[in-house]
């Protein structure tokens, strides 16, 4: 019986690094060498000398890889190092490699399966690192057994890329090509080349950077290596999270490679700013703050251990009415905030009015009870608003309700220690800081301290309102004309709402208990539509990224560097996710719920398929957009739409552009005729 022997590539097949760009190891090595006083130069010249030494050493070997000792002979020659110092630098690089090398989760199972065929396996690597070092790392992670063999290109003078290293292995083992099965991550060196020699090959590319990690990797210089570390941690996290199906694989990859780097960087910025301003407490506002608080609990001990982290049950619905002291333009804009579905019944819920008190008022102005659940068209909403804006009895009723709710809210704020005078911050995603304004109205009435508001991004408040406390933003601040955008980017708005979705229902109001305590009243105890979609798995994947960073990463200095240096890389990461969505990714978000109404009376889905009737109406200018609802993700919606819709959409867009051009021509012609 002919025995089958298995061979494995080593790097990014069995072992990988905490950073996705291997060249970053040289930067870390150079920084450490200077910090330890081994050389009296800045890190960058040593980094460049190390890179150059590798290139020049290969000139004299005529090989793809030079040996480690040959590289350091070149480095010693360039920097005129003593033998002793060159040896210390060699050892330092190996120490850093050891620190940054980690096992790949699937490696144990692959090796176990291989050893069932033959007790000994073969390791083949195109690498400059010495074989004794590689064997030591394989032993360290229990991959090596006595009797195994390692073939390193730099020491043998042959390579996988050329194919002659595989030929050498076959000859040395005295086996035929059909008796060897090779596994590796490189399509060319580990799959195409051995197959051309008659060797069976398995492509294991799970540890190769995915498209998001590759984006982060490109920005390692601009981010002082932090984005490369983020990419490496993303890779490690997704490799160690088991997905049960294709949808979970997508959610895992988006959580670890897109959401986690963005949210983690945002929370690091919050904690750094809170420390700089010596805030005693940080309040994470429901529900966007749910996952942000969990991230902060992992990071705070490393960045600002003295700060107290708390969760505050709030919502626009729960705060707007208690903070109301005057009926003004801002009040009416909130009451008639545009949603896909708007009825008198939903308006009353915003006003916190019961049916019994409201019925006489609304019936008197022409709205019988039987019509209260009907969705009002835009013109009908405007007509209703005009009637209510001049209705004194309704406004008095609303202000009385607001006063009653304000007393209970005050008790809740007192309970949560917001009124004790200590400096504190409020954390939300964005986008206009309306929750902060509502709380500030209460604080102003009570004469207590104003907060510092932290936001991912912030736009100017509507209705002429202004913040009484401080407002700071990470990504862009349109109040200060600072950051990555000059106008609010609604792609980020919907994506961040999904990334920060909460597992509980929204907060409706507060209930005073017999013992004087206050409990929030939730719409639902669980956000079931989001849980059904996979929110818990998504959050778990994000947190594994954070926990890996805090508990396992060898480089904690990333937590102290300026997070805003990463904004450009994070933006490119997000734009790739939003604009270049794959069919599998779009399908995974097809049933992701998106709540449009502040009282969660209904919800849509983030990636709802485009409807043929809507495409037609758009083409003839009867609709402003193609999406089923205003918060839908167009690129993903198009991906999950029917083949017919995908064909018709480009035609509809072209038709709409033609209509716009014709309209401009007609307007210009009419002006010419009049003049």
What's a quick, concise take on this entry?
With 675 residues, this protein is of the alpha/beta class. The chain is built from 28 helices and 17 strands. The strands form five sheets. It has a six-stranded mixed β-sheet with strand order 9-8-10-11-12-13, covered by helices on one side. Strands 5-4-1-6-7 form a five-stranded parallel β-sheet, with helices on both faces. The chain has a two-stranded antiparallel ribbon with strand order 2-3.
Task: Explain what the structure shows.
By secondary structure, the protein is an alpha/beta fold. Among the domains are: 208 residues, 3-Layer(aba) Sandwich (Rossmann fold), CATH 3.40.50; 184 residues, 3-Layer(aba) Sandwich (Rossmann fold); 80 residues, no CATH class. The protein has 28 helices and 17 strands. A six-stranded mixed beta sheet has the order 9-8-10-11-12-13, with helices on one face. A hairpin with a 5-residue loop joins strand 14 and strand 15. Helix 1 packs across helix 4 and helix 11 runs antiparallel to helix 12. The longest helix has 32 residues. The radius of gyration is 31 Å and the shape is elongated. The termini are far apart. 41% of the residues are buried.
Please give a handful of descriptors for the protein shown.
675 residues, alpha/beta, Rossmann fold, six-stranded mixed beta sheet, 52% helix
Total E-strand runs? 17
Structural class: alpha/beta
Superfamily (CATH H level) name of one domain: HAD superfamily/HAD-like
* CATH fold name of one domain: Rossmann fold
What is the straight-line distance between the termini? 98 Å
Q: What value does the Rg take, in angstroms?
A: 31 Å
Can you tell me the CATH architecture of one domain? 3-Layer(aba) Sandwich
Please, what is the average pLDDT? Answer: 93
Shape annotation: elongated
Helical content class: 40-55%
Largest beta sheet: what is the strand line-up?
9-8-10-11-12-13
CATH class (first level) name of one domain: Alpha Beta
Strand content: 5-15%
Please report the number of helical segments.
Answer: 28
Poorly predicted spans: none
Biggest pleated-sheet summary: 6 strands, mixed
Protein name: HAD family hydrolase
InterPro entries: HAD-like_sf, HAD_sf
